Amino acid sequence: MEMEPAIYDRIGQSYSVTRRTDPRLASVIWEALGDARTVVNVGAGTGAYEPTDRDVVAVEPSSVMIAQRPPEVAPVVRAQAEALPFADGGFDAAMAVLSDHHWRDRRQGLLELRRVARRRVVLFNANPALADRFWLTTEDLPGFLALIPDRYRAAGAWQRELEDALGPVRLVAAPIPHDCADGFYGAFWRRPTAYLDPSVRAGISVFATLAAVDVDRGVGALEADLRRGAWQARHADLLAFSELHLGYYAVIAELS
Question: What tens digit of pLDDT does each residue of 54-94 get?
Fold first, then answer.
């Protein structure tokens, strides 16, 4: 299959500056891998969340992201999720962290993860039906909700779609720590000034996906709210929370 330009060839130029492993989320993902000794990490990016105590092979389509992988992380193969260059059942487990929503054909990618894994498939991502749990989306970037396909509106739709490709799955909620080390979209829920930083936004695909006019409007509104204390007054309760469930889950499909 001919390689298509990966989204992170365009937006991942400084990805490693703000995106790194958060140990608390890593523990959720690594526990979900169970006793798997051989693991393929699909959409591996710069290597965050790759367990160091197992035999890992990374798959990443973006040459820009591959170039930012440190020398000590797992060996990487440049390929797409929809056409993994591995034999059936070649690994104990297949994993994908904050990746599957970028795949060109998500169902085909999930089927490929199931094909190459003997024991289990582990995903870490957010349920799109719960996007309205996050204040940044509802208050400042409502255009993000319009990007979510209608098929996810029904209760349980996300899980049913996963199970259509992977078989029965178990969902493990993963609340986001208030000081999350990994700068993905929901990471700064208690640190709103971070979203004003262009380098932070550069590592978050939502900001690259939305129209520039919507991003500028949303960031401007947030900045104004912070400057006059409106955000602090509206979200005073959040400042007492050490973690918050924004709809992120570890998804575990046991294959045998």
Answer: 999 999 999 988 999 999 999 999 999 999 999 999 999 99
Widest pairwise Cα distance in the chain? 58
> pLDDT tens digits, residue range 135-184?
999 999 999 999 999 999 888 999 999 999 999 999 999 999 999 999 99
The 10 Å Cβ neighbour count of residue 241 is: 15
Give, for 97, the enclosing helix (H) or strand (E). Answer: strand 91-97
In angstroms, how far is the first alpha carbon of the chain from the final one?
30
The CATH classification number of 7-254 equals 3.40.50.150
What's the 3-state SS for 157-184?
A: HHHHHHHHHHCCCEEEECCEECCCCCCC
Lowest mean pLDDT among 152-156, 185-189, 236-240: 152-156
pTM for this predicted structure: 0.93
Coil, strand, or helix at residue 232?
helix
Give the Cα separation of 140 and 13 in Å (integer). 25
pLDDT in tens, 12-62: 455 666 789 999 999 999 999 999 999 999 999 999 999 999 999 999 999
Spatial contact of 80 and 105, defined as CB atoms under 8 Å apart = no
CA dist 115 and 84 (Å) reads 9
What is the gyration radius of the CA atoms in the chain, in angstroms? 18
Q: Could you write out the three-class secondary structure of 11-33? A: HCCCHHHHCCCCHHHHHHHHHHC
CB of 38 within 8 A of CB of 86? no
